[in-house]
Amino acid sequence: MNAAGCRWGWDSSYPAPAKLNLLLRVVGRRNDGYHLLQTVFRFLEHADQLQFAPRGDATVRLTTPLPGVPPESDLSVRAARLLQTASDCRQGVDIRIEKHLPLGGGLGGGSSDAATVLLALNHLWQLGLPRQRLQELGLTLGADVPAFVFGRNAFAEGVGEALRAVELPPRWYVVVEPPVQVPTTVIFAAPELRRDSPPIDAGDWPPDDIGNDLETVACARFPAVAESLRLLSAAAAPARARMTGSGACVFAEFPSEEQAAAALRRLPPGLRAWASAGIPVHPLRELAR
Predict the structure, then answer these.
(1) Catalytic residue numbers?
(2) What is the pLDDT of residue 110?
């Protein structure tokens, strides 16, 4: 969907794509406790779908709340209210989310939803905020939100604010969703987490450098992640299975849709898994400048 086709109403849907971390290094820690990372974000076609309907008041209402998540805590609601405050906007909105990305999965589901809210409502409310400003707002919601607003596959540094676009070849991915949610705070609080990986320059990143410093900790504390890695590695061989983000989801990369589909068929029955193409840009990137 391009900016000209951006419409209000339940008949218009705005994607919030999944991301994978092709690389994730913890290179240090700031005095305020935030970890310094280097990571490579890759967007996928697989996505949540958001819809927006205008209201006659300034209320922001989520019509599809997640079980156990108060609407006031939902990142999509927080994003809409933050945009209202930042722009002194008096318009309201009803938000409907069709969830396809798991909670606590490392696919950026909540962050991607928030970024789609920022991008879509900035256009629908005709606010005209530039992309850089939306990225700054997104960073206050979560470290991954700016990457989705940036809208291109990217090498990210710091706590998510320093982004550099990278060109990635066409690839397909098989993703397995373990039956567990992995809280990011648990992984980053682990005393055994490595926090001194040597940093690399974004321009020197070789695509075969695909380690994830969080994977060992997640596997030790959440056996379902380790088991999913084992099963996907067997099905995807010789491709290497690895974890995205802080978990729980694991993935393997393939040159073609046919190879991804074959690996998907080799997985044991009962696993929640799917295949998706990587994409070069966020579907809503044209909505901001």
Answers:
(1) 19, 144
(2) 96
